[in-house]
Amino acid sequence: METYSPIFALVIFFIAVALLYVLFRPVKGWFWIIKKAFHTNEKVIIEDVLKQLYHFETSKNKVDMKTLVQVLDFKHADIVEAIKKMTINDLIYSESDVLKLTEEGRDYALRIVRVHRLWERYLADKTGIHKKEWHDRAESMEHRLSHDEAEELAAHLGHPKFDPHGDPIPTKTGKMASVHGVELPLLPIGSVGKITHIEDEPEVIYKQILAEHIYMGSMLKVIENNATRIVFESEGEVFKLAPIVAANLTVALIEKEVVLEDNVARLSSLKINETAKILGISRENRGESRRRLLDLGFVKGSSVSIDLLNPLGNPNAYLIKGTSIALRKDQASKILIKKD
Amino acid sequence: MKDNNIDHIIELSNELRWQIGDEFHDNLTESIYADAAEIVKDSVKTQDGEKRFRLDAKIDKIVTSKTWGFPIMFLILGTVLWLTIVGANYPSSLLASLLLDTVHPILRSGADSVQMPWWLSGFLIDGVYLAVAWVIAVMLPPMAIFFPMFTLLEDFGYLPRVAFNLDSLFNKSGAHGKQALTMSMGFGCNAAGVVATRIIDSPRERLIAIITNNFSLCNGRWPTQILIATIFIGAVVPKSLSSFASLLAVIGIAVLGMAFMFGVSWALSKTVLRGEVSTFNLELPPYRPPRFWKTIYTSLIDRTAIVLWRAIVFAAPAGAVIWLISNIHVGGDETIAAWLINGMDGFGFLLGLNGVILLAYIVAIPANEIVIPTILMLTVMVTGIGGGAGAGVMFELDSINATGDILKAGGWTLLTAINLMLFSLLHNPCSTTIYTIYKETNSVKWTTVASVMPVILGFVVTFLVAQIWRLIF
């Protein structure tokens, strides 16, 4: 006890806290980095190279060694080593500096893509993990799931066709549905379409789209389209996006003369003393939570009105089928209504 | 030939699945729901559809209004708590005088008359019996008052409105509005609060509510807080203000508990519980007159009796342990208790507490109610001052001043008192609650988190307070 002084004790305490923080802080903690480095082996590098080549190929871009090293987050020497090995094993070949996939390599790449997208689907449907994290988690999972496990997962999820961003999931034989539609900035003013795909890379732009509350499967109508901004109307609300952000949305043009009904809105925009009929629940509301809403009577055709406004603004209580049910704003924004 | 056929069928089914697309399953479900709704609309006649809009709607308008919603809520919950704490004093002292002051001496003299060896009577009567009697005397009355009142409010339909009003606060920390109810229940008893989390149907929010329930100051801890605040906090302000200051200190601790509840809920939802499924729905049922007697009966049987029984089961061995460690000597003269207290004094000092308090919190894991009696007994034992009822016999004094004198003789300062109040809020749940958490979650992992995390928080907070206090004063 002779050496005790409060300052000394505090200093030791804060050193210990700082040490724990450096070791275990999320993502950048040394412990996680070391753990990740431990898991990064040749297999991971090879699979990531294959996947990148596949993505370049589908977007009809040519790729050489230099670009590949830039895109991938591995040590230069490791990548070169991996590519050497892949060439020997007939997964890739090079044609005057441009790297290309062999038939076998493409199959392998498709399997990785399949696991990645299946896992995103799983995270979306069966867990409460936030959208922002799907991609990164799937990135690490795609190297771990074996072929049989992927099969089991697919069966468990009911052989889904698309991942939650709207990307098609290849079947085990390599068949893939095609995404209909074009990038939003290419649509002329006045065209009506449905969002079929939301690109989740780069992350910064994806986060902006999430923050705007733009959902898969929403119908939209382009109001303004120029070099500085794209304005469209969807579900009773008006969205303004920069073209670079809008380019990450794929929209399928509705060819037939569909009447985009007036008064279509989100339940969150309902005012007190207004009544409305429910049109449906957005695809964004998935799994358990979707079933719960259906159980409570939020089905097509039910009439709904506001029962109580919350003193703190959220959640509000809605009167449906004679019962008062409180829903949070983000839930209400995923229910489509038609105001009477 | 046959196999060939099956393969063909599987292939065809895969092909068809591919063609009908992803939305088929959802559309089917939805149309079944819609059909069912149509059928109900045609065949079921309702008469009370209009009724809701009269009385219920009026009550709802008031209890969820911006002006009145929160004052009414604080008033009702405050009244329930006040009635419990103040109202429980009388039956508690009655039970105490019966079980501790009357039956205990009778048992002792009875043991003497049949010439029971001192160690057996000490173990059974001073150890086991006393601990059980103490827990019953302190625990039963508040629970028997709190639970029925709370259940009546629940039955009437008011509590879901509280959840409705407060949800956005809880939402910000990743929790469910109904956690407001389980938290209030925790003010009565954490074990009951943990059971009450069954009303939260989203797995993630329910775990959060279970793990953070311990931050609600329970009935077993209110008396400790009030006693220590009266002795030490009340003494530093002018006499006319002393009761007000100590009341403020206790409320401050309870509010601090809520702050920790929100903070820890937020941290949990952002870290370890991130991946659990989260849904939200909250039904606001119509008001109805509570079925008074049935409610009283079920709340007494379902909540009070079960919790009390579990507490007794855990308190009995604790009493035995307390008596044993104060009476068994290791090497030379020292009892196990004195040896442990010496060993923990250094660490206790670092936290602004002392070895006696730490030992008391270890042996009193089964019930917070016996912390103060244990502290008094151990303090008298190690300081060797007069008073008390002998080694291993817990006691409490009627006079608050005398209690304060013993504690001060044990070296207590204002810092010790403040840190004891903090540590009483931030330490592991009692063993009844721990067991209940295990029963409800069925998971060793979450039970461990719920038990260990508050102690670590308690160590950190008391440590920081102690160092800063010593730097300033």
Layout of secondary structure:
The complex is a heterodimer of chains A (340) and B (473).
Chain A: H1 6-24, H2 30-39, H3 42-58, H4 65-71, H5 76-88, E1 92-95, E2 98-101, H6 103-126, H7 131-141, H8 147-156, E3 182-183, E4 192-198, H9 203-211, E5 219-225, E6 230-234, E7 237-241, H10 243-246, E8 249-253, E9 264-266, E10 275-281, H11 287-296, E11 303-308, E12 316-320, E13 323-327, H12 329-332, E14 335-339
Antiparallel strand pairs in A: 1-2, 3-8, 4-5, 4-8, 5-6, 6-7, 9-14, 10-11, 10-14, 11-12, 12-13
Helix pairs in contact in A: 3-5, 3-6, 6-7, 6-8
Chain B: H1 2-20, H2 24-43, H3 55-63, H4 69-113, H5 118-156, H6 159-172, H7 179-188, H8 190-196, H9 203-212, H10 222-236, H11 242-270, E1 282-284, H12 292-327, H13 336-350, H14 355-363, H15 371-383, H16 400-409, H17 414-425, H18 431-441, H19 444-472
Organism (chain B): Formosa algae
GO molecular function, one term (chain B): ferrous iron transmembrane transporter activity
Domain Ferrous iron transport protein B C-terminal (chain B): 250-298
Explain what you see.
Chain B: Residues 250-298 form the Ferrous iron transport protein B C-terminal domain. The complex is a heterodimer of chains A (340) and B (473). Chain A has 340 residues and is of the alpha+beta class. Chain A has helices at residues 6-24, 30-39, 42-58, 65-71, 76-88, 103-126, 131-141, 147-156, 203-211, 243-246, 287-296, 329-332; strands at 92-95, 98-101, 182-183, 192-198, 219-225, 230-234, 237-241, 249-253, 264-266, 275-281, 303-308, 316-320, 323-327, 335-339. Chain A is built from twelve helices and 14 strands. Chain A starts with 5 loop residues before the first helix and ends with a strand. In chain B, α10 (222-236) packs across α16 and α15 crosses α16 (400-409). The longest helix of chain B is centred in the N-terminal third of the chain and has 45 residues, at 69-113. The termini of chain B are far apart. The mean pLDDT of chain B is 86. Chains A and B meet through α1, α11 and β13 of A and α1, α2, α3, α6 and β1 of B. β13 (323-327) of chain A pairs antiparallel with β1 (282-284) of chain B, so a sheet runs across the interface.
